[in-house]
């Protein structure tokens, strides 16, 4: 495991830190530390402009190959970018699903024509993406999807019909990658396809889902014979491609996520010092515990990334989602206890939450979305430890 960076890496760190200092100013100054969990509704249009500003500076998709529009940045340099971005207070990225999930998947499994069509829009910050995986009856159990894809041999197009739910940022997305059942009568992992669908068609309807925070990052998306622009891979390859995509989700951006966590913990610590809660021995112990566990999270992530082989993450990566979601949920609780009675007082009516109140409410979902803690424990047991699979209940 590498815990130090080379001279070249430190020069790279100075480059990105200087660029952020020079560009997170003027019209972008109000975006600092905004747009994170529970705050994703703030400065939406300005953050879209910020994506294009990053692109102009060459700071989108830096881990991609130069052939695909990236910088060929090393793992160490990607870690540095995410750390410095969070340290500078870079706003929540509205393009992260395209850059971190859709793009790498298209680059790995798409044809040259598909790469030329879709990757430049992601690199430029012009095209935003969302993820069409979960359904009302297929959340953590992705293999239970019912959305259908039908092929018209006359028009040579696939049409998509069905419903997706908990679709983050669908309200702003230009494109959606959709897992749909393309073989009639297929069940489970078989008969799935990985489709790219334009959101700009009347056959696609987006309905926001109001969350505890009063905002609507999540959405329902309805497809009514929507035309798919492309299928990645062959019909039936959907499960294999979907699983590869989830591997990208556990990549280098995890270090940037931890810097955001550090920013939040620092805010809690500063509040405790200001309002006197730092004198409470129980609060001090919980702050120390949060700090220690965040440090452990960082070291485990560095170990995970150091052991990555040809883009394949090691088994250690299986523990990451369970660990961070539980830690972050507990941080939300700590924030409320540090606030004390003020945690129950709104900033103003009718439902104007403070930053820490939004953090607390949003973190209630951390152990549910992206695979519940129960599912994560099953994955660790079965794939990581080789234990027998959980028995399936029999319907009566």
Automatic annotation (TrEMBL):
Keyword Kinase part of the UniProt annotation: no
GO molecular function ontology, one term from the record: oxidoreductase activity, acting on the CH-CH group of donors
Keywords in alphabetical order: FAD, Flavoprotein, Oxidoreductase
Family matches, as InterPro entries: Acyl-CoA_Oxase/DH_mid-dom, Acyl-CoA_Oxase/DH_mid-dom_sf, AcylCo_DH-like_C, AcylCo_DH/oxidase_C, AcylCoA_DH/ox_N, AcylCoA_DH/ox_N_sf, AcylCoA_DH/oxidase_NM_dom_sf, Mycobact_Acyl-CoA_DH
Residues annotated as domain Acyl-CoA oxidase/dehydrogenase middle: 130-225
Entry keyword annotation includes Oxidoreductase: yes
Domain Acyl-CoA dehydrogenase/oxidase N-terminal: start-end pairs: 7-126
Cofactor(s) this protein requires: FAD
GO cellular component assignments: plasma membrane
Superkingdom of source: Bacteria
Record domain Acyl-CoA dehydrogenase/oxidase C-terminal: where: 236-384
Family statement drawn from the similarity comment of this UniProt entry: Belongs to the acyl-CoA dehydrogenase family.
Protein name, as recorded: Acyl-CoA dehydrogenase
Organism in which the protein naturally occurs: Vibrio sinensis
């Amino acid at each position: 495991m590498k815990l130090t960076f080379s001279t070249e890496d430190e020069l790279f760190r100075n480059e990105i830190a200087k660029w952020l200092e020079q560009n997170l100013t003027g019209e972008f100054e109000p975006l600092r530390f905004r747009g994170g969990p529970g705050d994703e509704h703030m400065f939406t249009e300005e953050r879209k402009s910020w994506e294009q500003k990053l692109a102009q500076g060459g700071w989108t998709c830096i881990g991609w190959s130069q052939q695909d529009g990236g910088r060929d940045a090393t793992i160490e340099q990607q870690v540095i970018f995410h750390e410095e971005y969070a340290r500078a207070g870079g706003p929540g990225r509205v393009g992260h699903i395209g850059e971190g999930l859709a793009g790498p998947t298209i680059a790995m499994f798409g044809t040259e024509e598909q790469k030329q069509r879709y990757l430049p829009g992601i690199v430029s910050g012009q095209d935003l993406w969302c993820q069409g995986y979960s359904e009302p009856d297929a959340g953590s159990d992705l293999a239970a999807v019912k959305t259908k894809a039908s092929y018209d041999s006359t028009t040579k197009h696939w049409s998509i019909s069905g419903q997706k739910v908990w679709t983050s940022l669908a309200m702003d997305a230009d494109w959606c990658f959709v897992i749909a059942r393309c073989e009639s009568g297929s069940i489970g992992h078989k008969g799935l396809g990985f489709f790219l669908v334009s959101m700009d068609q009347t056959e696609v309807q987006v309905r926001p889902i109001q969350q505890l925070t009063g905002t609507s990052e999540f959405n329902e998306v309805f497809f009514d014979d929507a035309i798919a622009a492309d299928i990645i891979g062959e019909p039936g390859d959907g499960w294999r491609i979907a699983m590869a995509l989830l591997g990208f989700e556990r990549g280098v951006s995890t270090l940037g996520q931890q810097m955001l966590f550090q920013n939040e913990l620092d805010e809690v610590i500063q509040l405790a010092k200001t309002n006197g809660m730092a004198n409470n021995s129980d609060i001090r112990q919980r702050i120390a515990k949060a700090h220690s566990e965040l440090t452990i999270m960082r070291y485990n992530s560095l170990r995970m990334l150091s052991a990555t082989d040809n883009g394949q993450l090691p088994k250690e990566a299986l523990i990451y989602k369970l660990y961070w979601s539980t830690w972050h949920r507990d941080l939300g609780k700590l924030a409320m206890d540090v606030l004390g009675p003020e945690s129950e007082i709104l900033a103003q009516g009718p439902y104007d939450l403070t930053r820490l109140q939004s953090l607390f409410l949003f973190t209630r979902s951390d152990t549910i979305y992206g695979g519940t803690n129960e599912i994560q424990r099953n994955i660790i047991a079965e794939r990581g430890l080789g234990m027998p699979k959980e028995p399936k209940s029999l319907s009566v």
